[in-house]
C-alpha cells in the first residue's frame, strides 16, 4: 500500500513538472506552424545610423526588425494581437536581449508605429515567416574609420 502511494506521488510530481516546463518555456521555444507568440518592443533614436548584424545601417524609419534566431534577410509578418494590425518587416539585426524569455522581436520605430504600440512600447504579437532568406554568402566589409584610412 505504501509503495503504491509513493509511486502515485512520484508520477503526479513528474506530470506536474512536465506541465510546468511546457507552460513556462521561453517564448523562443514556443514555435508552431501558426508562428511565434510573445512580446514585441521597438528601438529607434539611440540606434539610428549604427550598423546592424547584417552590416547595413539601422534606420528607425524603415520596416525592419531584430530577431535572435531567424536568418538575416527573412521577411516576417508581425500581427499586434490587441489591435489585429499587421506589418511585414525584414530581419536585419539580432535581439532582443532585454527580457528574452518574453520578448521575441525588436521592431523599428516605423513598424511599431504601424502596429499601434509606439507609445506603450510593448505589445503582444504573433510573428509568422513570410519569405525565408537563403543564407547570404557575401561578406560584409566593416566600415572604414572616420578618417577615411584603414586602421
Write the layout of secondary structure elements.
Layout: H1 2-23, E1 31-32, E2 35-43, E3 64-66, E4 75-80, E5 86-93, E6 103-108, H2 109-115, E7 122-131
Parallel strand pairs: 2-6, 3-5
Antiparallel strand pairs: 1-2, 2-7, 3-6, 4-5, 4-7
Q: Could you characterize what this model shows?
A:
The chain is an alpha+beta fold and 151 residues long. The chain has a domain at 30-131: Barwin-like endoglucanases (Beta Barrel). It contains two helices and seven strands. It has a six-stranded mixed β-barrel with strand order 2-6-3-5-4-7. Strand 4 (75-80) and strand 5 (86-93) form a beta hairpin. Mean pLDDT is 81; it is low at 18-31 and 136-151.
- Give the structural class: alpha+beta
- Reading the helices and strands in chain order gives HEEEEEEHE
Largest sheet: 6 strands, mixed, barrel
Rg (C-alpha, Å):
21 Å
Q: Keywords for this structure?
A:
Barwin-like endoglucanases, alpha+beta, 7 strands, 29% strand, disordered C terminus, 151 residues
The gist of it:
This protein is α+β, with helices and mostly antiparallel strands. 19% of the residues lie in helices and 29% in strands. It has a domain at 30-131: Barwin-like endoglucanases (Beta Barrel).
